[in-house]
Amino acid sequence: MAKKEVCSTGIEELDNKMNGGYPLGSTVLVTGCSGSGKTTLCMQFLFDGARKGERGVFFTITEPLFKLTKNLEGFAFYDKKLIESGMVNIIDLRIISERLGLDAEKYTVEDAGALLDILKDIADELDVKRLVMDSITALCYRLQTREMIRDFIFKLGTSLAVMSCTTLLTSEVPPQTFKFSQYEIEEFISDGIIFLGDVERKGDLIRTLQVVKMRGTSHSRTKFSLNISSQRGIELVPLLKSTEFESFLKR
Amino acid sequence: MVDAIIEGIRERVSVAIRVNQSVGIQVPENRHGDLLEAIFGSMLKNTHDIWTFVTVSKTFDYLSKTFREISQHPNIKFIDCISRSAGIPIHNNCTYIESPTMLEKTILEIMYNFKGLKGEAEKYIVIDSLSALMIYNDGELIREFMSLLMNKTRSENIHIVSILIEEEMDSNKLIQLNDKIIVLRDSFID
Question: What's the whole-model pTM score?
Fold first, then answer.
């Protein structure tokens, strides 16, 4: 049987759970509340790719560039040279919006479409193999109606499907909920869903990671405890099951 | 007399730990200090062995002041699960866990200490103590923690010594977790 082409995640334990990584060319929704590790997971993915000669781009709409890079500096996976050499590109979508003359707070469908075209052009021009959008929630927040959001997300899905890169879209959800997205549409354009949550243990919050869906590969659906080491980045270990019961009782 | 007891404990622990993958030591509270001295003595005597000492009962700050030699030894690494949550001063040559409830993180840090080690050195983990962990976690969770840790360490040929303070925990639970149990009494060893 031919070996499936995969794109490594940058996290050894996660690769092991998904037969080597994300299926090549897939769109994966990385969903979780604030502080759950979404941005770190995405950055680890990009820097891992860059080390393997795969160019990546990180589109941010939530954090200024200087803050993003400053937060990365402590991690062992971070390498400033990979940014300077253009193997990892970090682009602030707000700056692009500004240059396009768009209202920073409110987008029309046309505005969002124009922005999407620019993203596509950048990805094509740089020949990126790994793309991250952080976050789809913040981008959709600028659209005025649910219909506009739905249309934009489907257009985004169509655009990503024809691009030759593996994409991570981050999605913000409220804490302590088992919900994958803010608008409940994002998951439908995604080939995979990685859910970052937390469980409470004696008042302390333990970060968790679960691969809920990953089309094109068999994968573990076990819940893992996620640790963000200030040096080593994201690490996974099986979550002790008794925690789940305790957390459930509290709800 | 005290030295003879410590030497006796040290011998007994050394033999048991080499034969078994996991050894549980049940000790009365008033002999806990002697046991630590015996274990630290073993660590210093076998300088080629690699050790990770997980402390839940005494802070690293206290241990480093009481057993100065041990805290500076390159083959002995410490993981302190209690100082951070108690706001006690921290040191550079120790890994601190935010809370003793962070059991999975403790496993990751333990395994990280042994990652990439090659050669013939024997590898050991000491957990001081299971009974202290049970102050902060439910018993079922500690059993699961030990089971996961044992499975992970067994494949890496790492031995585990776990300490139990007699007054703080039902000894039957510890017996179920370890390959071998040593019971220390006030004046003799079972």
Answer: 0.88
